[in-house]
């Protein structure tokens, strides 16, 4: 097998308070291949977001090894990360197109090409024609789509998503899942997708990393053996149900 | 402008006219003596009295209000940016500023007059002092109120301190700046008038004291209306600037 794109070996993260040490992440080892969409699922407070922040280079880790990039896919930590959060976090005073362009501005990319790319991305996420609108004129789902376009504008190799659809209603969420699948297939980015939703995790993931809280560790790294092109009907399939039941069991919820 | 905006303007105008009509009727029907409260018309008529030197006093008070106010906006916003730039400075000076804010600024006026002698420049300083704090404190709050995730997003891209400040903090703080500025408009008018009350030789506040001695209530009421007019113009200008510079959704009401 080729060298993996992300390689985590025994990664630890400890938060120290005055009285005690809290292990936010306990010896996690994961190998992610380039172009995979990996869901990370687990209860709140199990260190999923912390793991993303370590990968984004925002937090140092306290042990083990984090390696991103390979000879085939070199990785520049400052320009190859795109992030999407639970809230769209668009800048209220900027029009949608200008919001999408923010990472390009920060990186100092040539604006003319970036503008074109931003327009293409907005079209891809279904927001063609909304370039000059302000965020407040868009629904929550549409704002989140703009946030996804923003995460892609500088053409990063790794997209980190922290419960991006957690604040949306159930129907919008399903729709966004389908769209994310399509974006992922078209763009071929490596995506790490943190979620509370077990169904969502299985539906989207090429793999699902199941994490437990206290101690925060990796319970299982599952390979989801479902066709790459998925639609909502897949959720009624036998093996889809087996995967979700297995995750419930791992999280002691059955 | 939309129909709803016109409707709002129409209602506001109607209510103002109704208020003046009520005043007028109350004075006439209540048979209120002129030296207690004149009718609006009697007050307005004093504008034709050349000895009252209206333009001179109006200009003096307007200079104090606008001068002190603009100075407070510039210095207040600059101080807030300065503080937010350095966490240490913020930690060291903010508590002091909160204490200083507790000083009744009006009570500082006699001291300022001792230090600077009376005059327009002294009243500008008094107005500045009273307007400075709400602008500073609001701006500082706005600069501090940034979504941590948004900071992460910029930091993950190795964004510089300056980029965070100019692209996120500063435009994000603008609604708060205006919120502070709106509060300060009322204070600006009060500051200038208090300065004139304590010691002065011009201005609408001073004029009110002088006409009070002669029980020229109609002139006093007219002076009061003119002071209010300056305040309304100031407030209106701030609202107009806010409409131009702050996107609708971001405005702090």
Describe the structure.
The complex is a heterodimer of chains A (254) and B (253). Chain A is α/β, with parallel strands linked by helices. Chain A has 2 domains: 1-80 and 158-254, 3-Layer(aba) Sandwich (Rossmann fold); 88-155, no CATH class. Helices cover 33% and strands 24% of the residues of chain A. Chain A has a 6-stranded mixed sheet, with helices on both faces. Chain A starts with 5 loop residues before the first strand and ends with a helix. Chain B has 10 helices and no strands. The radius of gyration of chain B is 22 Å and the shape is flat. The chains are: A alpha/beta (254), B mainly alpha (253). Chain A binds chain B through residues 53, 56-58, 78-79, 81, 83, 85, 87, 89, 91-93, 102-103, 105-107, 134-136, 154, 162, and chain B through 147, 149-150, 152-159, 163, 167-168, 171-172, 174, 246-250.
In short:
The complex is a heterodimer of chains A (254) and B (253). Chain A has 254 residues and is of the alpha/beta class. Helix content of chain A is 33%, strand content 24%.
Q: How confident overall, as mean pLDDT of chain B?
A: 92
Name of the top-level CATH class of the largest domain in chain A: Alpha Beta
> How many DSSP E strands of chain A?
9
Question: What structural class is derived from the secondary structure elements of chain B?
Answer: mainly alpha
SSE ordering of chain B: HHHHHHHHHH
Instruction: Identify the CATH class of chain B.
Output: Mainly Alpha
Radius of gyration of CA atoms of chain A, rounded to a whole number = 18 Å
What is the CATH topology of the largest domain in chain A? Rossmann fold
What share of residues of chain B is helical? over 70%
CATH topology grouping of chain B: MetI-like fold
Q: Count every helix of chain B, treating DSSP H or I runs of 4 or more residues as helices.
A: 10
State the low-pLDDT regions of chain B, or none.
none
């Amino acid at each position: 097998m080729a060298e993996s794109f992300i390689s985590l070996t025994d990664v630890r993260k400890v938060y120290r308070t005055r009285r005690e040490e809290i292990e936010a992440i306990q010896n996690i080892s994961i190998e992610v291949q380039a172009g995979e969409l990996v869901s990370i699922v687990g209860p709140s407070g199990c260190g999923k977001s912390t793991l993303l922040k370590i990968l984004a280079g925002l937090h140092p880790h306290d042990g083990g090894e984090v390696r991103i990039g390979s000879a085939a896919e070199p990785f520049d930590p400052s320009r190859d990360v795109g992030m999407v959060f639970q809230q769209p976090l668009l800048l209220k005073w900027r029009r949608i197109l200008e919001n999408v362009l923010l990472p390009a501005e920060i990186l100092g990319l040539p604006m003319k090409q970036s503008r074109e790319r931003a327009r293409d991305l907005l079209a891809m996420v279904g927001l063609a024609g909304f370039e000059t609108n302000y965020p407040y004129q868009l629904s929550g789902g549409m704002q989140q789509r703009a946030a996804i376009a923003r995460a892609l504008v500088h053409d990063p190799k790794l997209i980190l998503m922290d419960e991006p659809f957690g604040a949306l209603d159930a129907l919008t969420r399903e729709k966004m899942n389908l769209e994310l699948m399509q974006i992922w297939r078209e763009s071929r980015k490596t995506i790490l997708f943190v979620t509370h939703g077990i169904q969502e995790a299985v539906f989207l993931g090429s793999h699902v990393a199941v994490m437990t809280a206290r101690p925060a560790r990796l319970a299982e790294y599952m390979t989801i053996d479902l066709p790459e092109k998925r639609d909502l009907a897949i959720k009624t399939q036998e093996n889809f149900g087996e995967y979700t039941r297995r995750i419930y069991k791992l999280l002691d919820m059955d | 402008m939309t129909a709803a905006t016109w409707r709002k303007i129409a209602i506001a105008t109607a209510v103002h006219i109704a208020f003046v009509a009520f005043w007028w009727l109350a004075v006439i029907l209540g048979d209120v003596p002129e030296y207690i409260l004149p009718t609006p018309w009697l007050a307005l008529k004093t504008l034709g009295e050349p000895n009252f030197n209206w333009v001179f006093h109006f200009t003096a008070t307007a200079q104090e209000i606008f001068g002190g106010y603009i100075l407070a906006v510039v210095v207040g916003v600059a101080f807030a940016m300065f503080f937010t730039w350095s966490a240490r400075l913020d930690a060291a000076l903010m508590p002091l500023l909160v204490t200083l804010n507790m000083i009744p600024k009006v009570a500082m006026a006699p001291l300022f007059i001792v230090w600077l002698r009376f005059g327009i420049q002294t009243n500008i300083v008094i107005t500045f002092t009273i307007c400075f704090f709400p602008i500073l404190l609001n701006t500082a709050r706005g600069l501090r109120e940034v979504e941590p995730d948004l900071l992460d997003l910029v930091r993950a891209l190795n964004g510089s301190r300056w980029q965070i400040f100019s692209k996120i903090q500063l435009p994000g703080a603008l609604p708060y700046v205006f919120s502070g500025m709106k509060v300060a408009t009322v204070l600006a008018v009060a500051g200038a008038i208090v300065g004139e009350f304590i010691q002065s030789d011009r201005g609408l506040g001073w004029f009110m004291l002088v006409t009070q001695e002669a029980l020229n209530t109609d002139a006093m009421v007219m002076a009061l209306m003119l002071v209010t007019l300056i305040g309304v113009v100031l407030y209106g200008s701030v609202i107009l600037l806010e409409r131009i510079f702050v996107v609708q959704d971001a405005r702090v009401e």
